[in-house]
Amino acid sequence: MTFDLANIVGLIGSAIMVVAFAYSNIARPMNLVLFNVLNLAGAALLISSLVVHFNLASMALEIVWAIIAFFGLVSALRRRA
Question: What is the pTM of this model?
Fold first, then answer.
């Protein structure tokens, strides 16, 4: 594996998603806006990395992850308003 920009972006995306997962297991009460923003940002970075280094299974997972995070974010923002 080379450490090109796409791989660095993907690693940052992965790190953000791990932070979101850790946050969901530690925080009480959990801020759903923050949680979904982190997941959406991580998925977006991973998708951009996968555009360069394509893997169908990973791309499908990240697209679904991003969709779920997007709708979770919309729902959390509606509840706040």
Answer: 0.94
